[in-house]
User: Which sequence fits this backbone?
């Protein structure tokens, strides 16, 4: 575990509030943590504990109401929207529960997209996308649209899309939440394998089986970190 | 009829709203759920109603304007009887003591055609005027309403004249000015002692159909004095003794007694060489006909925009159903019947339709006003004899009819869409699983294909034997449509679709050649059928190959923005096809009109040559004092002169009732250098046909627009081989003629060409040769010389080219007006793009969130949406432009008679304007939704449940 003054990703006293019809809700209450390069961290907690909000805020997808988030020493929320977007394109990958593939693009085109956004030449982007799909076992499904793939296959395309541009961090929000147990196991095997190859992975889940596969588990409750354990310490 | 239809259509919805609280809640709350989209739907739909209402109001305006003209020019005069002046005493004797319950007044006048000139500095000339002798006291008593007669003061003293306001304006004279009248072979100068309004007896005009009345009232006996003063024996048309009759019941109601009055007058005339002219009745009949015709014309043209509006409605309702698929599925799962679901969806649509109909009807008044104003400018810009002044007017019942028809069209469209939208698989709908594409058509479609094919064959046979152009065009298309599902079970559906669409396109473009061979009448609705079928076939064809098109574009190496901008329209084919249709229909129509107008304008020289034969100048002169042919031939610069008789005759043909129309009597001069013919009955050359007419008084040559009054039926009134009847409206003398050839479009108002002998036998002395075709070395200089030399003969000369140019510019003005009218439909397309883009933002919220999370910039999101809107609009515009160009090219090289002489060319400026007017607003319509999409925060978007 990295100290909060070092690490690839650092969150210092992060606050996030939501306004609802019933008033203001404190989704994150001064969260502080650090993640080293190459770590596989799972974020667990009951529904409404702030897991997804933490992912959104630390990845820069959402604004914060207090504190700081640093990626490689750069303060994310001090960047303009365009700079933060560039940063996501070059340094981050995302895996979502609902796959969130672009339905009108083929598997290959979906995987190719972050590469193009990161400025890779079209020809090279296509080669790398094809190679990444091959890597996740979908070399034979490159031309298929998302609607023509099974849930497990779609999630593997999502993972391929997340890792194709070789990001510094991959964020995964309930990546197995919509899958049957067999597909979920396949997906987790794949993610573990990618982590072993050096990928920094931060995974949000409420499934203890999935969370147990991470090196480190952060437990959240009511917008605060309740516990932070490494695999050996549990 | 419209309101009845609307009530019939609306009743079920009223029952639903009153009787079913749940369906009412669903309909009303869903309508309020998406206010921007609801506004766009209403905006797009109201245009259809506005166009319908506008076209009906054009009818009101024309009807009221012509009627007002009739009441102005005739006032209490309902019928007239005219005889040569020397027979006047006998006529008066016949009607001495005449009485009929239908007639409340008889007035005797003497009317002589005259030329009138202001010889003072800067004075004007009016070559065709009437010198009228009437007792002013008697005239004021005529009809029982002195004000309706327009006659003021005593009968002018000798040497003094009362003139109408038209004469005063044309000549630039006022009370006290001097005017010189040339009539009956002599001239006399008068002092103007009052200017009368063009009203009632003062506005009585019998020369031609123009709406002006150039009347000079003088003391009785003036014409006789002039004739006595004539230095030579007059060879012109004699003065006419006219009896005017006023029907009981005032200016407007009197016309309803025409039949009884005519019978009473005719009985009195029994045995005389004269007949009753129902002048007011005929003019009012023409008002009704022209109003109906022009209203129908604009209605038909407006149907292109209405069709685009229908497509918009279908598209929107299919999109709304897609959005609510899960909830609709759930409702069905809970036990809601399909018919109830249709009712709920249609009720929501009915609410939109009622709102759109009401707003559209109000907007339609504005549309009608704009068209009436522009049409008035155009109709008033041509030759005065054909000019029509319009005064904007409408009836409340017309606006209600527009509202009813527009709303009824929307309701029918929405119910049909709702029926289609209510058909879905409940499980797929609840789980939001896409409906799989069928590879083969359903069995019931295949079975339906058989009767459709048979109906198509029957329609084709009936069309050819008619000939009926609609059946000729639609029959083979029905056959193709019927064969499609049958063939799709045997051959690859894509190949069948391609073949059928290509066949429909080829036939829609090429059938005009067949119609020309069948000599079928081409009417405007046929172009509607052609345009809609072509647009439909082209859109289906393009949509079928969208995927392939995408792959081709892909090879070109597109940016991510472009790729996404193309990918979505490619994926949502139905939606894309609907949007393409909206643009294709309207742009096709606009480009088509531009092309036709351009090709017409390009024919000016050729038309001039065809119309005039070897002569470049047309000269009209006063029939009572015509230009002497010998003096004209001796004029400097004149090479040759063709004297022509010229009268307004009454014609009847197998397809047209009594219509007043010009007739021209030809002599050997014209037959030796005659106008060109489009069609002739077996004669080896044009000259042979003209020679035959010259030699045989039973033959005639007419043109394709013979007897076609503005807005009247577009069916050809006479074809080669037809027998027509020409009669003298004054005497009733008739002559039967056989049409042996069809001449070029009659921009010179020549009417029917017959031999001068035939004209003289029918019209007597009134058929005097007073019109000339003149060949000259320098036509413009000669025209000026003729006008100054023969001013006393009322010489009105123009080069044929200037007349043709004027007519073509008027025609071009009409095309532009039609384009502006149809161009309103582009707003429907723009609204369509707006609706699609708003839907897209909502549907793609998560996708936008994903893209943004992957590093897609906000500006790129904007660009993607704009690119998508631009791509679809460009494709639709390209389809429209391409098909219009191909169709007009084929038309230009076809045998269709109305396309004779067309040379294909592209009006580049017009085309650029049309493309810009279509594309720029379409892309602008996407700006707001695109900006909205770019502002979606990724974390928020990703939280949205699909």
Assistant:
């Amino acid at each position: 575990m990295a100290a909060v003054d070092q690490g690839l990703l650092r969150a210092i006293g992060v606050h996030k509030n939501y306004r609802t019809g019933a008033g203001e809700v404190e989704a994150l209450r001064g969260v502080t943590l650090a993640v080293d390069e190459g770590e596989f961290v799972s974020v667990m907690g009951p529904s409404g504990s702030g897991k997804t909000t933490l992912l959104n805020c630390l990845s820069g997808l959402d604004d914060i109401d207090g504190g700081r988030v640093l990626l490689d020493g750069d303060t994310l929320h001090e960047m303009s929207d365009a700079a933060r977007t560039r940063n996501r394109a070059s340094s981050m990958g995302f895996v979502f529960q609902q796959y969130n593939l672009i339905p009108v693009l083929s598997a290959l085109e979906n995987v190719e997209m972050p590469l193009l956004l990161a400025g890779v030449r079209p020809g090279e982007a296509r080669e790398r996308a094809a190679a990444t799909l091959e890597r996740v076992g979908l070399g034979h499904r490159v031309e298929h649209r998302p609607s023509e793939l099974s849930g497990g296959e779609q999630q593997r395309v999502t993972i391929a899309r997340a890792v194709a541009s070789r990001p510094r961090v991959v964020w995964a929000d309930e990546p197995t939440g919509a899958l049957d147990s067999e597909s979920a196991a396949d997906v987790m095997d794949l993610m573990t394998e990618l982590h072993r190859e050096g990928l920094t992975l931060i995974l949000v889940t409420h499934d203890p089986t999935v969370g147990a596969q991470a090196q480190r588990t952060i437990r959240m409750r009511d917008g605060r970190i309740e516990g932070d354990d490494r695999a050996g310490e549990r | 009829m419209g309101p009845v239809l609307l009530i019939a259509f609306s009743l079920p919805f009223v029952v639903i709203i009153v009787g079913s609280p749940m369906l009412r809640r669903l309909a009303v709350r869903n309508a309020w759920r998406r206010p921007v989209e609801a506004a766009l739907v209403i905006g797009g739909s109201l245009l259809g109603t506005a166009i319908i209402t506008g076209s009906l109001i054009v009818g009101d305006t024309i009807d009221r304007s012509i009627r007002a003209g009739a009441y102005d020019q005739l006032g209490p005069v309902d019928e007239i009887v005219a005889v040569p002046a020397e027979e006047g005493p006998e006529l008066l004797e016949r009607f001495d003591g005449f009485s009929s319950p239908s007639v409340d007044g008889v007035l005797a006048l003497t009317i002589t055609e005259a030329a009138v000139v202001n010889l003072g500095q800067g004075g004007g000339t009016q070559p065709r005027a009437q010198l009228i002798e009437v007792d002013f006291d008697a005239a004021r008593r005529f009809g029982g309403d002195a004000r309706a007669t327009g006659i003021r003061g005593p009968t002018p003293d000798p040497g003094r004249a009362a003139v109408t306001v038209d004469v005063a304006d044309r000549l630039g004279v006022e009370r006290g000015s001097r005017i010189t009248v040339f009539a009956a072979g002599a001239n006399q100068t008068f002092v103007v002692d009052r200017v009368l309004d063009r009203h009632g007896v003062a506005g009585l005009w019998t020369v031609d159909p123009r709406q002006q009345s150039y009347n000079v009232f003088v003391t009785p006996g003036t014409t006789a004095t002039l004739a006595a003063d004539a230095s030579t024996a007059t060879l012109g048309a004699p003065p006419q003794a006219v009896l005017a009759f006023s029907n009981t019941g005032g200016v407007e109601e009197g016309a309803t007694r025409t039949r009884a009055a005519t019978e009473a007058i005719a009985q009195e005339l029994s045995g005389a060489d004269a007949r009753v002219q129902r002048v007011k009745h005929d003019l009012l009949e023409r008002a009704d006909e022209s109003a109906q015709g022009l209203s129908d014309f604009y209605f038909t043209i407006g149907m292109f925009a209405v069709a685009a509006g229908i497509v918009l409605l279908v598209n929107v309702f299919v999109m709304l159903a897609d959005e609510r698929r899960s909830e609709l599925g759930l409702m069905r799962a809970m036990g809601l019947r399909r018919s109830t679901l249709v009712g709920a969806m249609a009720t929501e649509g009915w609410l939109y339709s009622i709102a759109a109909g009401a707003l559209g009807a109000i907007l339609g008044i504005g549309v009608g006003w704009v068209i009436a104003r522009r049409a008035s400018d155009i109709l008033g810009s041509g030759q005065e004899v054909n000019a029509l002044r319009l005064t904007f007017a409408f009836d409340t019942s017309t606006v209600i009819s527009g509202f009813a028809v527009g709303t009824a069209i929307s309701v029918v469209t929405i119910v049909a869409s709702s029926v289609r939208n209510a058909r879905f698989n409940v499980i797929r709908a609840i789980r939001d699983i896409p409906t799989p594409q069928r590879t083969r058509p359903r069995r019931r479609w295949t079975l339906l294909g058989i009767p459709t094919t048979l109906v198509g064959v029957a329609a084709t046979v009936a069309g050819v034997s008619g000939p009926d152009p609609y059946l000729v065009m639609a029959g083979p298309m029905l056959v193709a449509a019927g064969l499609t599902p049958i063939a799709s079970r045997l051959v690859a559906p894509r190949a069948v679709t391609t073949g059928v669409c290509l066949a429909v396109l080829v036939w829609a473009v090429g059938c005009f050649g067949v119609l020309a061979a069948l000599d079928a009448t081409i009417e405007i609705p046929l172009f509607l059928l052609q345009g809609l079928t072509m647009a439909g076939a082209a859109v289906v064809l393009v949509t079928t190959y969208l995927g392939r098109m995408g792959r081709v574009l892909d090879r070109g190496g597109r940016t991510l923005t472009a790729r996404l901008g193309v990918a979505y329209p490619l994926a949502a084919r139905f939606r894309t096809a609907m949007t393409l249709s909206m643009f294709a229909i309207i742009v096709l129509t606009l480009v088509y009109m531009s092309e036709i107008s351009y090709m017409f304008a390009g024919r000016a020289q050729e038309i001039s040559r065809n119309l005039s034969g070897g002569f470049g100048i047309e000269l009209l002169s006063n029939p009572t004092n015509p230009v002497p042919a010998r003096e004209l031939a001796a004029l400097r610069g004149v090479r040759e002169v063709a004297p022509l008789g010229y009268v307004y005759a009454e014609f009847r043909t197998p397809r047209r009732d009594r219509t007043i129309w010009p007739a021209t009597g030809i002599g050997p001069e014209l037959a030796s250098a005659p106008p060109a013919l489009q069609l002739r009955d077996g004669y080896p050359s044009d000259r042979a046909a003209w020679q035959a007419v010259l030699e045989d008084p039973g033959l005639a040559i007419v043109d394709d627009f013979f007897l076609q009054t503005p807005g009247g039926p577009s069916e050809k009134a006479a074809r080669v081989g037809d027998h027509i009847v020409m009669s003298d409206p004054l005497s009733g003398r008739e002559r039967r003629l056989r049409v042996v050839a069809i001449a070029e479009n009659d921009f010179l108002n020549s009417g029917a060409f017959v031999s001068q002998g035939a004209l003289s036998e029918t019209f007597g002395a009134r058929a005097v040769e007073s019109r000339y075709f003149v060949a000259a070395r320098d036509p413009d200089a000669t025209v000026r010389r003729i006008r100054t030399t023969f001013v006393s003969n009322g010489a009105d000369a123009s080069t044929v080219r200037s007349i043709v140019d004027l007519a073509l510019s008027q025609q071009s003005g009409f095309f532009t007006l039609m384009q502006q009218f149809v161009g309103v439909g582009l707003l429907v397309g723009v609204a369509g793009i707006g609706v699609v883009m708003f839907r897209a933002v909502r549907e793609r919220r998560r996708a936008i969130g994903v893209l943004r999370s992957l590093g897609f910039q906000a500006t790129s999101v904007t660009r993607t949406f704009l690119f998508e809107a631009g791509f679809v609009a460009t494709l639709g515009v390209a389809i429209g432009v391409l098909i219009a160009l191909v169709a007009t090219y084929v038309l230009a090289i076809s045998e269709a008679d109305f396309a004779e002489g067309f040379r294909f060319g592209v009006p580049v400026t017009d085309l650029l304007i049309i493309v810009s007017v279509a594309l720029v607003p379409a892309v602008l319509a996407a700006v707001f939704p695109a900006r909205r999409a770019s502002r979606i925060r990724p974390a928020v978007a990703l939280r949205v449940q699909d």
Observations:
- Chain A is about 35% helix and 30% strand.
- The longest strand of chain A covers residues 23-35.
